[in-house]
Amino acid sequence: MKNLFFTILCVLFVAVEGFAQQSFTLNSPDNRLTVKVEIGEKITYTVAIKGQEITAPSSVSMTLDNGTVLGTKPKLKNSKNQAINQSIKTIAYKRSLIEDKANELQLDFGDFGLNFRAYSEGIAYQFTTKFKNKIKVKNEEFSLNLKEDALLNASLLNTFWSSYEQFYDQVKISEIPNDKFSYLPLLVNLSNGVKIGITEADLYDYPAVYLGKNKNVSHSLLGVFPAYPTKEEIGGHNNFGIKVVETADYLADVQGTRTFPWRILFIADEDKQLLDSDLVYKLSRPASQDFSWVKTGKVAWDWWNDNNVYHVPFQSGINMATYRYFIDFAAANGIEYVNLDEGWSEQFDLTKLKNDINVEELVKYGKAKNVGIFLWCVWHVLDKQLAEVMPLFEKWGVKGLKVDFMDRDDQKTMNFYQRIAEECAKRKILVNFHGATKPTGMNRAYPNIINHEGVRGLEYNKFAQDGTTPDHAAQLPFIRMLAGYMDYTPGAMHNAQKKDFKTLFSRPMSQGTRCHQLGLYVVLEAPLLMLSDSPTEYLKERESLDFIASVPTTYEQTVALDGKVGEYAVIARKQNEVWYVGGIANWEGKEITLNFNFLGEGVYKAIIFTDGVNADRVGEDYQKNIRSVTKTTQMKIKMAKGGGFAMRIEKM
């Protein structure tokens, strides 16, 4: 029987300088995308959308430390094609069920192989190896050759010491300095309107990939990797980091038989397609143990507001009275967790408590009110004391750890992420990685990795004059969230327009409007979702608090409604028969017509928060309205400069 998803199985054998060239063409299930794989002197892939090539042939290879190059003059031993059609039940995700449909080409070259997949939303490939002994990978060639000098949304660096917390630069490939590269995801903007998002998935025991300018090929991006660390020293902010001082001449020392990370190209001819992709989750390995105990939810955060509660009969700060107050606030408003950030223990000894803090007592106090406790930790301190403190945390009844300041993703550090996830899973403890790399699907194997920073979030408005802006926020759902969830930490109740913004460490504010903050609670993917401001500020803003408290953090269904990269994003999500709709806009603002055709039959009640008529002057100005809607309703919504909107919709 013919395989419908192969236009050409293996039909071209062309003599190229004495070497037979073979060609395979793989189509996506909807026939929108095509990837052509050619095997000759090298292995290349070419991507087309609707029959139009959007890349030039781009080569892939892997070089080992013994000089072997997997992909140079390869000899194909076997090929296999198959259709993937399965349903994936998710844990702690933006939809409860994923329909995983793709067409796959497996190429076997003996000691190594290549798997290509074509999805309706993008293309992916990965290396596999089958060596008996361990191997050292000296380099991996991941290239993307384009047909034009495309404009990128990228975050340019000249170091691998990074927490993925930069703004996006808009830069053409030719304009990338030779000594700089970008972390992923990044976005390629083609002149025909097509956009290519690039990231990776199933990253284990291997370094993360970055992309720089290919100096030898025009209009080309080429992967660069952090080398394996051989000498390290304590450094960085407050000595919370470990800097790499010397490296080996290889990337990774790995088992000879294994799979390598998937290289992913999301391909969209409408910007809103980038708002709702499952590729990273689909391409990552599943859990191998029971994670039914994982409890998602929201968390009251102390650090951003500087533990600054007032109108209370005690001195606020890092002390038992303040944390009991946080727990009382969380319990009264259905907030599942409270986070104890920096200061509850000695920075470099997690067994020595500070400031009269008794964690075990706080855990008991919270448990009686159905509120769990997260503890903040410096990553290398946790790693050093792991055998000692993990049983202690379990004994205390701690529900989660916020692990901070890795700022690296070489092979050694990537193994740390997995090690912590595994150790926490053994004790049914959640983990939230901050000062971190991007997510790469490890949360599918370890759903107790409940969130991941790797983003320039709201915290920057506390201490940096450029902070984080609505312009930046309006890019994140299309670019950073291609990799998965992110801990942006929204929830500011002090909201300022551009001219009024300033940094205040103890009473910080956001840039943009109140409804921008409310909209973020729906737009963001975050199984653990922060309430960044002080309980005192929330209690003064009951309507905003009630909406935030009502918003779920995982969903049965997600629908991308509208958006333009860097301008605005609108997303609808459904949980327990209730729909939530959120929108955010950049500093220009945006007026949209919202179509409610995602609703079912019948009449619904919509609680609607929109920017007030004076929100362009006073960021905290908003309007709350209640009206009935049906699936045929169309509603004009004006988002102010740096604005947004939010809705809760349920059947009447």
From TrEMBL:
- Residues in Glycosyl-hydrolase 97 C-terminal oligomerisation domain copies: 555-649
- Name any cofactors this protein relies on: Ca(2+)
Report the residue ranges that make up the Glycosyl-hydrolase 97 N-terminal domain in this protein: 26-286
Q: Which UniProt keywords apply?
A: Calcium, Glycosidase, Hydrolase, Signal
Signal peptide span: 1-20
Q: Which GO terms describe its molecular function?
A: carbohydrate binding; hydrolase activity, acting on glycosyl bonds
Q: Tell me the InterPro entries matching this sequence.
A: Aldolase_TIM (IPR013785), GH (IPR017853), GH-type_carb-bd (IPR014718), GH97_C (IPR029483), GH97_catalytic (IPR019563), GH97_N (IPR029486), Glyco_hydro_b (IPR013780), Glycosyl_hydrolase_97 (IPR052720)
The family database entries (Gene3D superfamilies) matched by this protein are listed as:
2.70.98.10, Aldolase class I (3.20.20.70), Golgi alpha-mannosidase II (2.60.40.1180)
Q: What are the Glycosyl-hydrolase 97 catalytic domain coordinates in residue numbering?
A: 303-455
Q: Which domain of life is it from?
A: Bacteria
Q: How does it assemble?
A: Monomer.
Provide the protein name.
Alpha-glucosidase
Originating species? Thermoflexibacter ruber
Name the lineage.
Bacteria, Pseudomonadati, Bacteroidota, Cytophagia, Cytophagales
